[in-house]
Design brief:
Layout: H1 3-14, H2 40-49, H3 52-56, H4 75-93, H5 97-106, H6 115-125, H7 132-143, H8 154-161, H9 171-194, H10 205-211, H11 215-229, H12 238-256, H13 265-281, H14 288-296, H15 299-308, H16 312-323
Helix pairs in contact: 2-5, 4-5, 4-9, 4-11, 5-8, 5-9, 6-13, 8-9, 9-11, 9-12, 10-12, 13-15, 14-15
Length: about 325
């Protein structure tokens, strides 16, 4: 018996009946021989962790565009925090932690440079529209591995696609959706305090009296509320959800739509739009891997995929190279 087979049997003995166990699941578009060591969901986790798109998350905006300080969140650190929260809930419910982790690590692979401002402008100018959660699935299906994709399991791809506004087919996928909400509100508060935009005492007292007056306490309260409600009905209690929603509304009013935090958004959008139009006009300038995508799909799809995959730094440097005159050097 292989290590993988032992793990599959162990899962059947210890995971709850609502869990998506590795044995009998893990369907892929292209069939592959089984790994002797890892389950299918463990393999997916590793493929995501080692792919190029995952590494690029370290230089993609979370809230503050291209922050100078070392301690502001990026899309990568956000992803890791979502994974930690989701795994904690999954473990408490005796669900499949490997599946949960794979979905969490892959959920934002399709995010654009400059956060949601990049997503918004691509959604405006690309004829197909643009949603980062669907782009994440495109990344693992058509872009990674020189166009061959990562050949992930259906359950992982479904969890990635449904992490924003749909219900996943697995409990593990739904947990990632909740963990994403818990993570971003609380770490964005932390970053906003670091940036001097907020103080802890500015947060609505009616919310912090219930959730707690620190990031750690709030995350613990939110997770505990979900766990107490049970795996049959994965949700926060009404009181805790109301406090969480109030905190979220406060963040939209005071941070996400704040003129200070968003001062550079118009510039970022204009830059991305100009890059998009440039490569539509000169598709021969696309890297070879995106020329393959253009041949398989079309020009707009290839240009959108290329720009969506850029980091903040790469897009700025490319823009400077294409549009900013260089000084004369003898």
């Amino acid at each position: 018996m292989t290590v993988r087979e032992q793990t599959e049997i162990t899962e059947l003995g210890i995971l709850c009946e609502d869990a998506c166990t590795s044995k009998g699941t893990g369907r892929r578009v292209r069939s592959e021989s089984k790994c002797p060591l890892r389950t299918e969901f463990q393999r997916d986790r590793d493929r995501i962790l080692h792919c190029n798109s995952f590494r690029r998350l370290k230089q993609k905006t979370q809230v503050f565009l291209s922050p100078i300080g070392d301690h502001y969140r990026t899309r990568l650190t956000h992803t890791l925090e979502v994974s930690q929260i989701a795994r904690t809930i999954s473990r408490a419910f005796r669900l499949n932690e490997d599946l949960t982790e794979a979905i969490a690590l892959g959920h934002d692979l399709g995010h654009t440079p400059f956060g949601h401002s990049g997503e918004d402008i691509l959604n405006e100018i690309c004829p197909y529209g643009f949603k980062h959660y669907l782009q994440s699935v495109r990344v693992v299906d058509y872009i990674e591995n020189d166009g061959a994709g990562l050949n992930l399991t259906y359950e992982v791809k479904n969890g990635i696609a449904c992490h924003t506004n749909k219900i996943a087919v697995t409990k593990e996928g739904y947990i990632v959706r909740l963990a994403d909400k818990i993570a971003y509100i609380n770490h964005d508060i932390d970053d906003s305090i670091r940036a001097g935009m907020l103080k802890e005492e500015d947060l609505p007292k009616s919310a912090t009296d219930i959730l707690g007056n620190s990031k750690s306490k709030r995350i613990t309260t939110l997770i505990t509320s979900i766990v107490k409600n049970g795996v049959e009905n994965i949700r926060m209690s009404d009181e805790v959800k109301k406090a969480h929603d109030e905190l979220r509304s406060f963040m939209f009013a005071n941070v996400y739509q704040n003129s200070t935090a968003k001062a550079e958004e118009a510039k970022a959008k204009a830059m991305i739009e100009r890059l998009y139009m440039y490569f539509l006009r000169y598709p021969d300038k696309l890297p070879d891997e995106y020329k393959k995508i253009m041949a398989k799909f079309d020009k707009d799809r290839a240009v959108c995929d290329y720009i969506a995959g850029m980091t903040d730094v790469y897009s700025v440097n490319l823009y400077n190279e294409l549009f900013i005159p260089k000084g004369w050097k003898k």
